[in-house]
Structure formats: structure tokens, C-alpha cells
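Hi all, posting the design record for the shared folder.

TITLE: backbone redesign
STEP: 1 of 1
STRUCTURE INPUT:
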């Protein structure tokens, strides 16, 4: 019995020596697992950035296509879309359309209005045909009327009750005020009262 006790005591002593000498150590935390967690976090952040980029690239804009197209109306196109794409969405040109009036390669702006004139309009000079013209410009005196923010003095004088003096007054007001916000504002021009406005209100417009 005493001998057994001595053996047990000896074994305990050996264990104590091993522990104190560091022969039995705790398993250290693996660095590889920490790196894996960091890599996973970076991947998740990268995915979030990619999703944001995709959302931006998927942004839609609205454009109003009218004039000589098959189906005039408001259409939704991709941001950065071109005029030819909007015309295609509107069913394409009619047989009367002047297909060279607009720069079809030009990028569309959100909220833009694209007016396609007919060949008779451009031939008669009622729609200015110019290679440097803004693609979204409306005809100065086309089928939709006179755009008082763009029309020349000569175009304004084609309106009932608008002579040279009133046309010049409109141009002066437009320059000083930065353009008309609504057609009714033309009544604020010197010499244009309610009577003249009633004559021309069906033939004028603003952009």
C-alpha cells in the first residue's frame, strides 16, 4: 500500500515538472484564421462597392420625344443614352421627318424634349437647320408653335400683334430675365397686354 502511494506521488511529481518546464503548452490561436476573417470582410466591402456602382450605371432618365415620330411621348432610357435610341423607342421617324435635323449621336439629358421637324419645315426655314445646333432645340416656329426662349426677332414678328418694336422688347426682356418660365410671363413685356396675349397664347411655348 505504501509502495503504491509512493508511485502515485512520483507520477504527480513528474507531471508537475513537465508543466513547470513548459513541455505541455496551450495551443496558440492560429494566425491563419484571423487572416481568413480579414479577407472575408474585405470581400464583403468590395461587393457592397460593386453593388453601388451597378446601381449608378442602371440609372434611368426621362426624355420627351415629339414631332415627326411614330409614337410621340415620354420614354425612359439609360443614363448616357443617345438621341437615336430615344427615337427608336418612339417607333422611329415618320415618312415626313427630316432625319438629319437632329444629331442622333448626341447624349440625352434628363428631362430633355426632342422635337423632330418635317422636311417641309426645314425647307421653308421654319426650323433652323444647323450642324452646331443643340440637339434638343425646338423649332423656332414649327408645328408646335414659337418658342419664345429661342425664337429670333423675325420669328416673333410672325405672331399676330407682334411687330418689330414688341419683338425687340421680348428679346430684351428675355436677355435681362434669363428667359421665360411660363408663357403667361410674356404679358410682363412692355407693350404686350392681355389682348395681345389672347391672340398669341395658342402659338407660343417655353422650354
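Okay, here is what came back for every position:
SEQUENCE:
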Amino acid at each position: 500500500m505504501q509502495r503504491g502511494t509512493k508511485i502515485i506521488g512520483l507520477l504527480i511529481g513528474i507531471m508537475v515538472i513537465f508543466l513547470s518546464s513548459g513541455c505541455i503548452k496551450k495551443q496558440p490561436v492560429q494566425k491563419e484564421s484571423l487572416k481568413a476573417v480579414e479577407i472575408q470582410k474585405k470581400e464583403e466591402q468590395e461587393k457592397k462597392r460593386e453593388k453601388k456602382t451597378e446601381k449608378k450605371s442602371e440609372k434611368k432618365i426621362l426624355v420627351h420625344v415629339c414631332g415627326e415620330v411614330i409614337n410621340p411621348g415620354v420614354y425612359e432610357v439609360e443614363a448616357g443614352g443617345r438621341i437615336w435610341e430615344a427615337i427608336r423607342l418612339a417607333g422611329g421617324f415618320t415618312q415626313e421627318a427630316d432625319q438629319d435635323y437632329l444629331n442622333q449621336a448626341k447624349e440625352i439629358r434628363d428631362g430633355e424634349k426632342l422635337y423632330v421637324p418635317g422636311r417641309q419645315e426645314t425647307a421653308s426655314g421654319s426650323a433652323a437647320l444647323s450642324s452646331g445646333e443643340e440637339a434638343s432645340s425646338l423649332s423656332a416656329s414649327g408645328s408646335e408653335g414659337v418658342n419664345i426662349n429661342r425664337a429670333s426677332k423675325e420669328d416673333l414678328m410672325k405672331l399676330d400683334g407682334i411687330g418689330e418694336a414688341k419683338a425687340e422688347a421680348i428679346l430684351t426682356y428675355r436677355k435681362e430675365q434669363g428667359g421665360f418660365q411660363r408663357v403667361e410671363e410674356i404679358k410682363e413685356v412692355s407693350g404686350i397686354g392681355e389682348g395681345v396675349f389672347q391672340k398669341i397664347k395658342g402659338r407660343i411655348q417655353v422650354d
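COMMENT: The helical segments are 2-21, 31-57, 83-89, 119-124, 153-156, 164-177, 194-200.
Let me know if anyone wants the other runs.
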